[in-house]
């Protein structure tokens, strides 16, 4: 059974809505569900159900409503000296679902995932909580804290979307929010910033003017320092207001293979090499070499997936030969790597030395794994190596001249599941 309180109060069972015709029955259900498992005193329920005019025998009327609820509920509604309580399973109300999603969002560092969780949470709101069951005064008494949670989640979503650079997409939502909460400074500030970043400086300043007027007329106060500072920055066209969109973390490893027979020992050994104490200015490099069909690529990919969490700044993958088996030039490979790191094509330099230097700069102070498949020789690889992180190389032959690398030869196994490169 599912209980929906974030909007008109509804009761659902097996995909069908259960009709509760009387407003007091829906309000009684909602009050008990606001604190599931906790007893609510009969006198408090009476005061909430009949705030203006009570029936002749309010306790008897309350008992009648309790009895009616029990006939339709698939959960236990208990009574005792302390009052009445609903023993609903965890997560059966949209309030609990909403709070779970918001808590998950707050714990996420990934902005895209945080935005998705918050969007899913806010979609559960179909209107003001308990919208159709009581007076506005009683609704505010019951749901004041819940409404504040709602606006706080909206604020978190706005800040997340602005950090992602979605300022233009936010404008319709911001118009609705500022209309609903015209004196909430965080909404006004988000609207000002989104408009400014969309090239609408005058409109951004108009939002500030409107906020000043509403705060003065309705509350007799001035905007806080944060909004005032934002207005000054917009007037000055401060470059600090420009959006800086975080680069997506590259995760380019091919799909992992299924079964690898007889490779556990080499995987364990090389995992230790790649995650050991790093030397300053030197990447950890392992080279897997062997004839075609020995499973070099499969082992390299398995090793990369196994160590992915140890390299949170990304895993880059590049094949160093074309479809005809010809080796790619270092310039070509560097261009691919730089684009994977978010460098625009127009910003990629022409020369090998400049591309190599830019790659090292982009990977400086980052913990990144690079996997190079089907390398030709050391001259193809040297300009691709960063000054830190880890590198996995596969090749038909040992890579002579690749300093400080750990080389391991793979030989063919009879089981075809171990082959792949």
TrEMBL record:
GO terms for biological process: phosphorelay signal transduction system; regulation of DNA-templated transcription. Keywords: DNA-binding, Transcription, Transcription regulation. Gene3D superfamilies: P-loop containing nucleotide triphosphate hydrolases, Tetratricopeptide repeat domain, Winged helix-like DNA-binding domain superfamily/Winged helix DNA-binding domain. Coiled coil: none annotated. Pfam families: AAA_16 (PF13191), BTAD (PF03704), Trans_reg_C (PF00486). One of its GO terms (molecular function) is DNA binding. Residues 1-88 form the OmpR/PhoB-type domain. The keyword Transferase does not apply. It comes from the Bacteria. Residues 1-88 bind DNA. InterPro entries: AAA_16, AfsR-DnrI-RedD_regulator, BTAD, OmpR/PhoB-type_DNA-bd, P-loop_NTPase, Sig_transdc_resp-reg_C-effctor, TPR-like_helical_dom_sf, WH-like_DNA-bd_sf. The keyword Transcription applies. Belongs to the AfsR/DnrI/RedD regulatory family. This is OmpR/PhoB-type domain-containing protein.
């Amino acid at each position: 059974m599912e209980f929906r309180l974030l909007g008109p109060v509804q009761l659902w069972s097996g995909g069908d809505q259960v009709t509760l015709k009387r407003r007091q029955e829906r309000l009684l259900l909602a009050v008990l569900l606001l604190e599931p498992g906790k007893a609510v005193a009969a006198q408090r329920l009476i005061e909430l159900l009949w705030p203006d005019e009570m029936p002749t025998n309010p306790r008897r009327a309350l008992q009648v409503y309790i009895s009616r609820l029990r006939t339709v509920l698939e959960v236990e509604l208990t009574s005792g000296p302390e009052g009445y309580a609903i023993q609903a399973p965890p997560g059966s109300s949209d309030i609990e679902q909403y709070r779970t999603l918001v808590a998950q969002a707050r714990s996420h560092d990934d902005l895209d995932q945080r935005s998705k969780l918050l969007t899913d949470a806010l979609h559960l709101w179909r209107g003001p909580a308990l919208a159709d069951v009581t007076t506005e005064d009683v609704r505010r008494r019951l749901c004041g804290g819940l409404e504040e949670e709602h606006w706080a989640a909206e604020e978190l979503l706005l800040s997340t979307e602005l950090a992602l650079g979605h300022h233009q997409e936010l404008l319709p939502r911001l118009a609705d929010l500022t209309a609903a909460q015209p004196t909430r400074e965080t909404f006004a500030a988000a609207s000002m910033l989104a408009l400014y970043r969309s090239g609408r400086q005058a409109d951004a300043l108009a939002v500030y003017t409107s906020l000043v007027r509403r705060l003065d007329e309705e509350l007799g106060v001035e905007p806080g320092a944060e909004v005032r500072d934002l207005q000054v920055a917009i007037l000055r066209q401060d470059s600090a207001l420009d959006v800086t969109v975080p680069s997506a973390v590259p995760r380019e490893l091919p799909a992992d293979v299924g079964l690898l027979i007889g490779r556990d020992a080499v995987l364990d050994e090389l995992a230790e090499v790649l995650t050991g104490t790093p030397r300053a200015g030197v990447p950890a490099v392992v080279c897997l070499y062997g004839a075609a069909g020995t499973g070099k690529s499969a082992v390299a990919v398995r090793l990369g997936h196994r160590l992915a969490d140890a390299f949170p700044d990304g895993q880059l993958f590049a094949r160093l030969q074309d479809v005809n088996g010809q080796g790619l030039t270092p310039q070509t490979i560097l261009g691919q790597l730089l684009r994977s790191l978010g460098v625009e094509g127009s910003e990629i330099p022409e020369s090998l030395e400049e591309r190599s230097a830019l790659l090292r700069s982009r990977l400086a102070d980052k913990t990144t794994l690079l996997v190079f498949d089907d390398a030709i020789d050391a001259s193809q690889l040297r300009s691709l190596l960063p000054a830190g992180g880890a590198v996995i190389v596969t090749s038909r032959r040992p890579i002579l001249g690749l300093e400080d690398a750990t080389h391991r030869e793979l030989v063919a196994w009879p089981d075809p599941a171990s082959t792949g490169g």
